[in-house]
């Protein structure tokens, strides 16, 4: 369904407007996303650029999953969590990017309220699971470095599976009521423009024709549970890790231990830093387009960075991928 952008209402509740009354009576509320640019040439460039990043994200994370599940040497707790993180990144970006790409080119397409709610729910669930899983990975590194002799006894396959399932279950428990709370609010108008490229919670709340203080407070509390608490647990883990690393006698051992942690820390700082900038600021202090720019980081940069740093900085994964490419090249030459 295509339409003229001039009929878009931006959430104001001026019920005396004849056009608004007509739109309210013409059908259910639908949302559209604000365009990045009106220039056709730049639209084509953005489409190609974001499509390239999306394909790289899919290929990079799929390669990690394949490497872990086809090689016995990589079937350890650390790589089990890494493969689950890669799977989450694939699902996470697929929830957002295809719809974003479809709206870059040509006229904007509306998304029904149910579709917007569905995207918001999956985004919140997968994003929260991602944050919890990063905390789980920090605990895994803590046990591996601080208690190496007990590592296999503590990080059993059953515990690893339970921790991943617990991260997903907690994310579902938090995301479902929050999404339901947002979409029980009234929205005035037929077509509402979201100042974003997906149905994120803060920009959708700005379009509601009701007092949003309760949903904002709930969002703030959930953001603390999803961002602040896991980040503090990660910091505590790395304090103990740093103390242990400093007591390692050999420089090579310290370097190896630091290398396994620095990759994880890079992803953590980007993920939690960008999330905090978006969800901990008062809505009135947020510039119109800043959240969209920040969201591009955790939509494209972090999912792409994950396979890059874990392959370029990890000898085991690099060796497995090199062997696989060598075998493929040899079979093609036969």
UniProtKB/TrEMBL annotation:
GO terms for molecular function: G protein-coupled receptor activity; olfactory receptor activity. Gene3D superfamilies: Rhodopsin 7-helix transmembrane proteins. The chain crosses the membrane at residues 44-69, 81-101, 121-139, 151-174, 218-246, 292-312. InterPro entries: GPCR_Rhodpsn, GPCR_Rhodpsn_7TM, Olfact_rcpt. It comes from the Eukaryota. PROSITE patterns: G_PROTEIN_RECEP_F1_1, G_PROTEIN_RECEP_F1_2. Its main location: membrane. SUPFAM superfamilies: Family A G protein-coupled receptor-like (SSF81321). The keyword Transmembrane helix applies. Belongs to the G-protein coupled receptor 1 family. This is Olfactory receptor. It comes from Sarcophilus harrisii (Tasmanian devil). The lineage of its organism: Eukaryota, Metazoa, Chordata, Craniata, Vertebrata.
């Amino acid at each position: 369904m295509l339409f003229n952008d001039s009929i878009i209402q931006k959430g104001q509740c001026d019920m005396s407007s004849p056009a608004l009354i007509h739109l309210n009576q013409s059908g259910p509320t639908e949302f559209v996303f604000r365009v990045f640019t009106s220039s056709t040439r730049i639209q084509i460039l953005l489409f190609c650029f974001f499509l390239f990043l999306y394909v790289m994200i899919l290929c990079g994370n799929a390669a990690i999953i394949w490497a872990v599940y086809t090689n016995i040497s990589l079937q350890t707790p650390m790589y089990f969590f890494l493969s689950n993180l890669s799977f989450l990144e694939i699902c996470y970006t697929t929830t957002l990017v295809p719809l974003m790409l479809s709206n870059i080119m040509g006229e904007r397409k509306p998304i029904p309220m149910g579709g917007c709610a569905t995207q918001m729910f999956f985004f919140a669930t997968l994003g929260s699971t991602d944050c919890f899983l990063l905390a789980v990975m920090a605990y895994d590194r803590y046990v591996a470095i601080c208690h190496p002799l007990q590592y296999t006894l503590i990080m059993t396959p059953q515990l690893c599976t339970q921790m991943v399932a617990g991260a997903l279950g907690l994310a579902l428990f938090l995301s479902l009521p929050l999404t339901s709370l947002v979409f029980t609010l009234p929205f005035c108008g037929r077509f509402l423009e979201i100042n974003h490229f997906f149905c994120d919670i803060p920009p959708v709340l700005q379009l509601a024709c009701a007092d949003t203080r309760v949903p904002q407070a709930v969002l703030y509390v959930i953001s603390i549970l999803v961002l602040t608490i896991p980040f503090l647990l990660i910091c505590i883990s790395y304090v103990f890790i740093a103390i242990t690393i400093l007591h390692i006698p050999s420089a090579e051992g310290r370097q190896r231990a630091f290398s396994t942690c620095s990759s994880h820390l890079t992803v953590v700082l980007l993920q939690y830093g960008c999330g905090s900038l978006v969800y901990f600021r008062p809505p009135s202090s947020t510039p119109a387009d800043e959240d969209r720019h920040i969201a591009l980081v955790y939509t494209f940069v972090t999912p792409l960075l994950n396979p890059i740093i874990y392959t370029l900085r990890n000898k085991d994964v690099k060796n497995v991928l090199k062997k696989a490419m060598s075998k493929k090249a040899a079979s093609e030459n036969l």
